[in-house]
Amino acid sequence: MNLRIALLQLLPGGNLNEQLIKGKDACLKAKEMGADIALFPEMWSDGYFLPQEEGAVDELAIAADSEFVCSFSTLAKELQMAIGITFLEQNEPKPLNSIILFDRSGELRLHYSKVHICAFADEKVLSSGDCFYVTDLDIGRGTVKIGSMICFDREFPESARILMLKGAEVILAPNACPMEINRLAALRTRAYENKVAIATCNYPKGQPDCNGRSTVFDGVAWLEDEPGVRDMCILEAPEEEGIYLAEIDMDMLRDYREHEVMGSKYRHPDTYRILIVEEKENA
């Protein structure tokens, strides 16, 4: 079974209605390309715009059950295609940076808010999420275990590791930053060390501080019947705006996860206590 993911590497419009129209049109095109999942870049509802004036960001935030978000539920059902829609979510005391994944029936399958917000920069006006989630996504030809992390979450090995331990096979990663050698290496490493596929959707060149280069790493570093290692990067988009489709061979990934040594097989969690205590015991 192949899982087809469309990365909607789009420039944002000027307001919520323009985001809705352009986003729905992109989903229609993704369906025509044969996608099982259409994934938006980070915080699509407002094009990752975070005003810093007191109260200003609250005016841009929308509810998880808003007309904007629910429109993509309706569209997912009409297209029989899963949609990962990203948005600035209403929340107290401060908004959240969120993704909702609707399945091909329009049902909400995953609702995740960014845990590792960039509190050192513009995201200081946001609240953090508090958990990572994995869901079973029926794509019509079978079921795939899906999780999500958002942009800066990538820099913390714990994000992908928790998702892997919860069973994730594929991680959807909305993004809004320059994708350069170190960030791409981090994504490759998260895929390698956890035997998971990671699909990252970024904004294209033209969006401030972004440069496209959306990627899919399929998580399979080598195969028994092939010499040497293989490149896990099965898609790296150019900088330009577009819809980019990748196919993940789920049968190959599952066989690899069954037989290879990374992931959870040889962990020693009893020695990792320092990761879960507030202070270093031997500081």
Write the layout of secondary structure elements.
Blueprint: E1 2-9, H1 16-32, E2 37-39, H2 56-60, H3 67-79, E3 82-89, E4 96-102, E5 108-113, E6 134-138, E7 143-148, H4 157-165, E8 170-174, H5 181-194, E9 197-201, E10 215-217, E11 233-236, E12 242-249, H6 250-259
Q: Can you walk me through this structure?
A:
With 283 residues, the protein is of the alpha/beta class. Helix content is 24%, strand content 24%. The protein has six helices and twelve strands. It has helices spanning 16-32, 56-60, 67-79, 157-165, 181-194, 250-259; strands at 2-9, 37-39, 82-89, 96-102, 108-113, 134-138, 143-148, 170-174, 197-201, 215-217, 233-236, 242-249. A six-stranded mixed β-sheet has the order 5-4-3-2-1-12. It has a six-stranded mixed β-sheet with strand order 6-7-8-9-10-11, with helices on one face. The mean pLDDT is 95.
